[in-house]
Design brief:
Elements lengths: L5 E3 L7 E4 L3 E6 L4 H12 L3 E2 L6 H12 L3 E6 H7 L5 H9 L5 E6 L4 H13 L6 E5 L4 H11 L5 E3 L4 H5 L7 H5 L4 E5 L2 E4 L7 H6 L10 H7 L2 E4 L2 E2 L10 H5 L4 E2 L2 H15 L4 E4 L8 H14 L2 E6 L6 H9 L2 E7 L8 H7 L5 H13 L3 E6 L7 H10 L4 E4 L17 H12 L3 E4 L9
Parallel strand pairs: 3-5, 3-6, 4-19, 6-7, 7-8, 11-14, 14-15, 15-16, 16-17, 17-18, 18-19
Antiparallel strand pairs: 1-2, 8-9, 9-10, 12-13
The structure holds iron/sulfur cluster (SF4).
Length: 447
C-alpha cells in the first residue's frame, strides 16, 4: 500500500503541483444548536430518537484516508455540539481551520435547507476557499446536485451515494483530480455541474475497506448518550419502492462483508466499548443470503453483543426468526411503511404491498420466539391517527417507531421533529403504555 500520496496543491490554485503526504482536516458537521435543543426535549419525554449517532460511514472514510497515508485531524461537531452547551461553533471551526490542510472534508448527514444555509455561513467566515469536499452520506445524485447548486461558490467537490467508493478507487493515492474522475462525485467546471456516473461498491471492494477508524472519533462519548451503534454489514435491495432511495444509493444486488471481517469488527467494538452497546444493522436485506445470516448470528452470539435490524414483515419467515432468535438479536424493526389494507392505491403505486395479515403473522412469530418486534410506520402514509392505532392493536405491538416521510431523501425545509400530527399519535400511544421511538433520519440510518 503506497504511503506517499500525490496531492493537488490547493493553497494557491488547483493545478497539480506538490507531491507529499496529504493533510486532511475533517469536520463532522452535526446539526445546528436549535435542533439539538429540540432533540433533548424529545428525549426528556422518554422518546427514543436516533440522534446523536456514531458516524460510522465517516469512520469508514477516515480509515481509507489513513490507509492512503493521509494525515488526519478531526473536529467532531456532532458530539461537541451535544455535550458542550456553550460551545461556539464558528470559533471552533476557525481555530480548527487556522492550520493548513491540503484538503478539507466536511461530513454531513442532514440535508435540510437550514443545514445547507448553516454550512454556507460557516464557510463564509473561514479564509480557506478551495480544496473543500462535502461528503453527503446517503444522498442521491439528484439531492447532491441541488446541494452543489446552492453551495457552488464554496465547494470543490460533492461526494454522494456510497461515499467510500470514489475514495477507495483512488487506490490509496488521493488527489482532487483523481476523485473527480470517479463515480459518485460532482463538481463545477466552467459554471456547469459535472457529474460522473453513480457507482456501487462491489463485494470485492467492500471487503477491501479497512476496519472503520472507531478510535479517531469519540466513540465512548457517543455511547454515553446513545448505546446504539449503526453497522452496515451488507448492501443492496432487490426492491425499488418509490418513496425510498436505497436502491439508488446502494444498488440492487446484494453484497456482504466476509464473516471474518465482521468478527474482527465486533471484537474491536467490544474492546472499545466493553460491549455495553447494541449494534443497529442498517442493512437493507439481511435475509438475502441465509447462510451468511446464520454466520452473522453466530458471530453476534459469541461476541455477547446484542443487535437489532430492520426487516420487511414478508421476510420474517419461521426460518429467519429462528436464526435471529438464536443469534442474540434483541429487536426486529418491522417495516409497515404503508399498509395495503388501508391504502391499496398508494401501496401499489409505491410498490410496497404489505398486508395486515402478513404483519400480524410476523409479530406472532417474533412473540413465540421471544424477540421484541417494533412496528415502524410512516405516519403520512396512513389515512388517520386512528388507523395507526388500529394496526398497533391488531398486531399487539408494544413498541412503535415513527418514521416521518421527510426522512426519505428530500432537500426539505427544516420542520419540527414533533409535528402536531406526531404529537397526537404519541400522546395516544403513551396512554396505552406503548414504547415510542422516532427515526429522525438525521444520523447514519437516514436513507
Ligand atoms: S423500502 Fe425497504 S424494501 Fe423498499 S426499496 Fe427501501 S429498503 Fe428496499
Amino acid at each position: 500500500m503506497a504511503k506517499q500520496t500525490m496531492v493537488t496543491s490547493v493553497k494557491s490554485n488547483n493545478s497539480m503541483s506538490t507531491l507529499k503526504n496529504v493533510s486532511v482536516g475533517i469536520i463532522n458537521l452535526g446539526i445546528r444548536k436549535e435542533k439539538i435543543k429540540e432533540i433533548k426535549l424529545i428525549r426528556q419525554k422518554d422518546i427514543e430518537i436516533d440522534y446523536p449517532q456514531f458516524p460510522l460511514r465517516l469512520a469508514s472514510l477516515i480509515s481509507i484516508l489513513k490507509a492512503s497515508g493521509c494525515d488526519i485531524k478531526v473536529l467532531d461537531l456532532g458530539i461537541r455540539g451535544w455535550i458542550e452547551n456553550t460551545y461556539d461553533e464558528l470559533k471552533d471551526i476557525s481555530s480548527f481551520l487556522s492550520e493548513e490542510y491540503d484538503l478539507i472534508l466536511l461530513y454531513q448527514t442532514v440535508h435540510t435547507l437550514s443545514e445547507i444555509q448553516r454550512l454556507s455561513r460557516m464557510l463564509n467566515e473561514v479564509e480557506k476557499k478551495n480544496g473543500i469536499i462535502l461528503v453527503c452520506a446517503n444522498a442521491t445524485k439528484k439531492m447532491a446536485s441541488l446541494i452543489l447548486k446552492k453551495m457552488k461558490s464554496y465547494l470543490d467537490i460533492v461526494v454522494y451515494g456510497e461515499i467510500e467508493l470514489p475514495f477507495l478507487l483512488c487506490n490509496f493515492n488521493l488527489s482532487l483530480e483523481k476523485l473527480k474522475g470517479n463515480p459518485n462525485v460532482m463538481y463545477i467546471n466552467a459554471e456547469q455541474i459535472k457529474a460522473s456516473r453513480v457507482g456501487y461498491l462491489t463485494e470485492g471492494l467492500m471487503n477491501k475497506l479497512p476496519l472503520p477508524a472507531f478510535e479517531e472519533l469519540a466513540l465512548k462519548d457517543y455511547v454515553k448518550i446513545n448505546t446504539h451503534i449503526p453497522l452496515n454489514l451488507s448492501r443492496g435491495c432487490s426492491f425499488n419502492c418509490k418513496h425510498c432511495a436505497v436502491r439508488e444509493v446502494y444498488g440492487k444486488s446484494w453484497r456482504g462483508f466476509r464473516l471474518e471481517k465482521i468478527r474482527i469488527m465486533l471484537e474491536r467494538l467490544k474492546e472499545l466499548t466493553n460491549k455495553n452497546i447494541t449494534c443497529s444493522l442498517m442493512d437493507q436485506d439481511i435475509v438475502f443470503n441465509l447462510d451468511w445470516l446464520e454466520g452473522v448470528c453466530r458471530i453476534f452470539k459469541s461476541s455477547g453483543i446484542s443487535w437489532d435490524c430492520k426487516l420487511r414483515p414478508d421476510w420474517l419467515t419461521e426460518e429467519v426468526v429462528n436464526r435471529l432468535s438464536s443469534g442474540n438479536c434483541r429487536n426486529v424493526i418491522v417495516s409497515a411503511d404503508v399498509l395495503y389494507d388501508y391504502n391499496p392505491h398508494l401501496a401499489q403505486s409505491l410498490g410496497k404491498i404489505i398486508t395486515l395479515d402478513t404483519i400480524k403473522k410476523a409479530f406472532l412469530l417474533c412473540k413465540e420466539k421471544g424477540i421484541k418486534a417494533t412496528l415502524a410506520v410512516i405516519p403520512e402514509f396512513y389515512p388517520t391517527t386512528k388507523s395507526i392505532l388500529k394496526l398497533v392493536e391488531a398486531c399487539e405491538a408494544s413498541s412503535v417507531a415513527l418514521c416521518p416521510l421527510r426522512v426519505f431523501n428530500t432537500l426539505s425545509e427544516d420542520i419540527n421533529i414533533l409535528s402536531s400530527n406526531l404529537t397526537e399519535i404519541i400522546d395516544k400511544m403513551k396512554t396505552k403504555g406503548i414504547e415510542i421511538s422516532i427515526l429522525s433520519g438525521m444520523g447514519e440510518e437516514g436513507w
